[in-house]
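Sample entry (436 residues):
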Amino acid sequence: MNYKYLVADSRNLAQVFAERHLDKADLVLTSPPYYDTKSYDAPDYQIGYKQTYQEYLTDTVDVLQQCYDVTNDNATLWLVTDTVKRNGMLYPIPFDINSKLDEIDTAKYSRSKSWILRDVIIWNRAKNIPWHSRGRLKHEFEYILFYSKNDEYKYYLDKLRNIYDYKKWWLTYPERYNPKGRPPSNVWEFSVPIRGWGNSYQKHLCPFPFPLIERIVTISSDCNDVILDPFAGSGSVIALAYYMDRIAIGLDISNSYKDQFEKEVLIGAKGYWLARRKELQETCSKLQLFENTNLKLRKIKAGLQLYSFIKDRFEPSNSIFFLLDSPVQEHSVDFVVAQCLSNYSLDTSILSTFIEKLNGKYRTNIFVKFKDLDELADSQIHNRTLYAYSTQSIYRYQDKLTVNKMPPNSFASDYLFSDIEINIENPIEFFGKDKE
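Predicted structure, serialized as tokens:
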């Protein structure tokens, strides 16, 4: 069993790890109890309950610093927390916790290092208890503070890239889009679950939605990594991390939450992940299609611009232009100009400068080659299926043919012929309907 839900006081975290010989964690994902708000169905000595604000901060930071001690050097901490208003005064808990971490008592912990803040993310919870008060609008977000121990932390941003809401512009301006898709912003929208995970109503008042857990586990860990939640609550972090093939460890002071975890949360996490894996497979296929298509579009667009440059600047007559993909180098293409070379003259220095600009803009490697028209019949081009592109559209070829079926030279010069095939009829619906 690759998960452990331990009923224990998180203020004894280091002792629990030592006594149970637990492996060091690679990722800490947690949300501390809110200050002076809820009893959490736990003993009165729980953190945040009937404590002063300073006592609450001290205990919370102490747990987070113990997390530092029981994690590997490349570990990260994702801390979900919020401000709270009491007696008309706002307590900036996330920022006070961060200040306390910066001022950690190095003598107490026998070292001089603590968590390093890397980013702050806004979690828009969308659905929330509709409370508001004088001096505070209806509150719908929390903070996610992202920390690491050093500069060598795990951060797999490419795994979170997406192509949601892409319209037709990604086809006409492929150079403006990362071939791997776009990363998420620092505002995340995940609704808080309002019903139970498995077969009953939600009993824990501050549950993590599974998509939020999935995103953090994905970006900051690998399979078989150890995921730790020192304030486990209902155990949603432990449950989903387990089904995502991680080793999950959670601590909570309440026995009732462990019962709920075993009876409901594990069931809900399993159902979520089975459905989610199918979605991820479809998303992966679409992202791969997007990347391949984006690279093709970049080559075609760069080739058409070079084609126009040569025609406008040097006015070659009776020339045929080819753009041939490289089977070996992913970003490389051969731009072949076929003409009667005895009558051919071209300033290569001007051409080289322009190609250098194209390569930088479109992330391509263009190699220009010149062939005599008489060589076409005996060249490798002769046997290739070619697609005719005009400057009017880069994502839809005009005709499909081979060298021996090409139009006369006077018409052939109106097209760029390539073995790269792109024929997108409906740009908006090319990838189908995506969902996040």
